[in-house]
Amino acid sequence: MGLFFLDYGAGNVQSLANSLRKLGHTFQWITSADDFHKATSLIFPGVGAFGSAITALEAKGLLEPLRAYIASGKPYFGICIGMQVLYESSAESPASRGLGLIPCAIESFSNVDKTVPHMGWNSAELLDSQDKSDEGVDEGSHYYYVHSFRARYDPETHPEAAEWAHSVTQYGQEVFVSSVRKANIFATQFHPEKSGEAGLKVISAWLSESENSRSHAPPTPRIPHAPRPRDGLTKRIVACMDVRSNDQGDLVVTKGDQYDVREKAVAGAVRNLGKPVALAARYYLAGADELCLLNITSFRHSPLRDQPMLAVVRAAAEEVFVPLTIGGGIKDTVDPDGTKRSALDVAGLYFRAGADKVSIGSEAVHAVERMLEQKSEDGIGEGDGTSAIETIAHAYGRQAVVVSVDPRRVYVDLDYDGPYKDEIVRGTSDEERGKAWWYQCTVSGGRESRPLSVVQLARGVEKLGAGEILLNSIDRDGTGKGFDLDLVNLVRRNVRIPMVASSGAGSAAHFVDVFEKTDVEAALAAGIFHRGEVEIGEVKHSLIRASVNARH
Ligand code: 1PR
Known about the structure:
- It is an enzyme of class 3 (hydrolase).
- In the C-terminal section; belongs to the HisA/HisF family.
- By secondary structure, the chain is an alpha/beta fold.
- It has 2 domains: about 1-215, Class I glutamine amidotransferase (GATase) domain (Rossmann fold), CATH 3.40.50.880; about 235-545, TIM Barrel.
- Ligand 1PR binds near residues 330, 477 and 505.
């Protein structure tokens, strides 16, 4: 008897389990249909794609027991896909049927006026204006969303579905349902387990209500009012930790200058800026919107030798309740004993350890090179369905796949007329006037240049199904000169998925610059945070002072 947790084997459910533990609750996992009878309350943290969730539930014989559980009137809390399965269907997976409790279909966000997925911290406006502390959801707080599909809030066309709406949120011009509530059912589109203290409050409020036997409570009367939402998506600040083993074999956070991580003075030792888990916890408490852990020497190791990195992710996920991206070595590999491990298996291990997104570097470059060999009308080429990006996006949803790009400038004559002529940038600053360049892709942490431009790569990975681009710059990395705004604008013009600008931040003003002068969704820094030169709070204050929407 007690609180149960439905995990059908996809995505990061570890983080929700960690939040429950942090809040002092014990729970059990649903492992068979019988467990639904034992559950007195149930959380379904649906992670991944709608179709794979439904297929996995059906295959495990859990879909009908789930329907029966909900019908029994016992408390149910669905998160993300756990909310979407309550609807009839989803454009994400037209062949799959949802539970159909809410008579409406989940549709795709339009990317005409904005990037998709909707990824980041946005608000939630309660529809019941009388009760501002409803279910722990607070109108003054931000919550973490990551989804390409949404339930449109449309009381005129779908009045019955709109009755379920508990809060709504605006992204671009679209107003969607960010939480639903009716009788024993509560569900959120956002991820409370990834929404810091504000999210823990929502989980805690639901747990105490469900303990008070909500099942016997009458349906809550709704006092709907016309929502007045506005797009509240904030710009994200990401703290990145490059992790590698030092010469003593310990995993440390390191930081290079233009990707060279060895000390110039101390006999070429790997720079040690701290322990990954301790730094991750520090950045979470300091208000980072997202954290990124990159295993920067993974290309030399097999996944088995990577196990320490999995332990780092597990430990970090116990302390950190904002999204965690893991990169390095997400590719097909062979274990030392000869066992083949697909990129999908490797990613799955990281998701189960507590990662929300995986970041793919070198393998993305190789995939786009292969794709360009297949002619297509748009000139971008065609994927063959086997790349890491395609397989992981198919199973876990495109929002779980980041591509980390490591471009380097290639200087050319001002009258260059070669194959990259449409992508040439001409310097305008005092230092760069009279120079022209294009951006070439590299693999293996910048060690090898490939015959591919950053624009080809960005357009290719978007088509393959990546949900976000993490845009580094080898030229700016560790220099403190500010983000390469030309690079960010160039890539922005070519893709409609969210982007994280990275490399070169030297002050809080550089973050204001990148958000004022480009249309990027997030900005990442490493060195200045590790060395304590700039605090995350200082960056947030500068953004707010400059009227850039930021979470504080
Ligand atoms: O190719 O899929 O195994 O992934 C390897 C990953 O490791 C890629 O994401 C690649 O960017 C990263 N990587 C590999 N070598 C290095 C290195 O530094 N020698 N680090 C490396 C990339 C760049 C950023 C850095 C920003 C901000 N690090 O992560 O954090 O440039 O730094 P700054 O604020 O101090 O300027 P695969």
